[in-house]
Design a protein that fits this description.
Blueprint: E1 2-7, H1 15-29, E2 32-37, H2 43-47, H3 58-63, H4 67-72, E3 74-76, E4 86-90, H5 106-109, H6 111-117, E5 125-129, H7 136-143, E6 147-152, H8 156-175, E7 181-187, H9 195-208, H10 221-228, H11 239-260, H12 264-276, H13 287-291, H14 293-299, H15 310-315, H16 323-327, H17 348-351
Parallel strand pairs: 1-5, 1-6, 2-4, 2-5, 6-7
Antiparallel strand pairs: 3-4
Bound molecules: adenosine-5'-diphosphate and magnesium ion (MG).
Length: 352
């Protein structure tokens, strides 16, 4: 399973449009796809045809990323039989705004990863539609992601927002996880005839060079029409829509190629990761591995003390630890620039 976030720190630039276009390409390719709607506006949920009142949504998942909560929050999209793949939605909710705090703890930012680990075997691709800010929800999405696609328009404010987004991704990489990397910056709503746009695109190229993805997504009414009808762009009639569909097919291939690139920094990180799997469920870690304390301690070369209440301590998922106790720990700043991360305190004393 691979995870891609579609982000920008500015609203209305086409995040949801691109997320749904990619979902359509994945559907057409026959992939099992999950769209995670982290934006409290819930446009991706609507665009995939899930309308109504739902008891379990991504807001419930962020509160409690347990297996049964995650499965109750996922529904099938209305795309159904229009293609060979499968597109499900982890439902968006206006209530997710309550999780969008400006200073999340590191523990909070791992919640979506913990949730996705439960459905790792069920999907080939996860596409996360994020809100237009760099608060907790977007960071939670990035921490769970392999790649982030930054969407921009060729206007001055969007150029500034793209720059901020790239810096923020880098800060997450430095402070929390080396796994996440930018896929690139996608220029949306491109109008080839506009001189101002040409100037802005050149400016973007000067600032970011290769990071700007080669193809630009043009302004086309079919995109709005297919979204309004809750239909994948790959099934929308006409040659014009077919060209847009091909654009998203190519973009998906770019993402897939990037997933396959090796991440050398991750290999260097390996010893640290071993220690982490004791404390939180992550993708790529089997449950038995997480729960088998004896093997884990053996690997770390630590003694098992018989008086430690093993079962109670380790079968309880890490995210159910006493949050209040964790909050009482002194905050450590990682000095990452724009904001301060609270470092999770590894309670070594308790473990030993
Ligand atoms: N390339 C495009 N051509 C035509 N309409 C577009 C295009 N990109 C986005 N839109 C429309 O612009 C509006 C905002 O896009 P949206 O994807 O919802 O942005 P965001 O998710 O970043 O807020 C939507 O109505 C969408 O259909
Ligand atoms: Mg949106």
């Amino acid at each position: 399973m691979r995870v891609l976030s579609v982000s920008s720190l500015k609203g209305g630039v086409g995040k949801t449009t691109v997320a749904l276009g990619l979902a359509s390409a994945a559907f057409h390719q026959g992939l099992r796809t999950l769209v995670v709607d982290l934006d409290p506006q819930c446009d991706a949920t609507t665009g995939l045809g899930a309308v109504g009142e739902f008891e379990y949504t991504v807001a419930s998942v962020l509160k409690n990323p347990k297996h049964n909560v995650v499965s109750k929050s996922i529904v099938a999209s209305a795309w159904g039989k229009a293609g060979t793949g499968l597109v499900d939605i982890l439902l968006g909710s206006p209530r997710s705004i309550h999780h969008d705090t400006p200073h999340p703890t590191v523990r909070q930012t791992w919640k979506l990863e913990e949730a996705l680990h439960h459905v790792e075997k069920d999907y080939d691709l996860v596409i996360i539609d994020t809100p237009p800010s760099i608060n907790a929800l977007t960071r939670t999405a990035w921490v769970a992601s392999d790649r982030v696609l930054v969407v921009t328009e060729p206007g001055i404010f969007s150029v500034v927002a793209a720059d901020r987004a790239m810096r923020a991704i880098d800060e997450i990489r430095q402070a929390i996880t080396k796994r996440v990397r930018p896929l690139g910056i996608l220029v949306n709503r491109y109008r080839p005839a506009s001189k101002e746009q040409e100037f802005r695109v050149n400016e973007l190229r000067e600032m970011f060079g290769e990071t700007i993805l080669d193809g630009y997504l043009e302004e086309k009414a079919y995109l709005q029409q297919s979204q309004g009808a809750a239909r994948p762009i790959h099934t929308w009639p006409g040659d014009g829509a077919a060209l847009i569909a091909d654009f998203f097919t190519d973009l998906l291939v770019t993402a897939q190629n990037s997933f396959e690139e090796s991440n050398e920094e991750l290999q260097v990180e390996e010893p640290k990761v071993k220690r982490k799997f004791l404390r939180r469920h992550k993708r790529g870690k089997e449950k038995p591995q997480v729960l088998d304390l004896d093997t884990a301690l053996e690997m770390l070369g630590e003694e098992i003390e018989p008086e430690v209440p093993v079962t109670e301590e380790w079968t309880t998922p890490a995210w159910q630890d006493n949050e209040t106790a964790a909050e009482q720990q002194p905050d450590l700043s990682t000095n990452t620039g724009n904001w301060t991360f609270k470092l999770e305190i590894e309670e070594d004393k308790k473990e030993n």
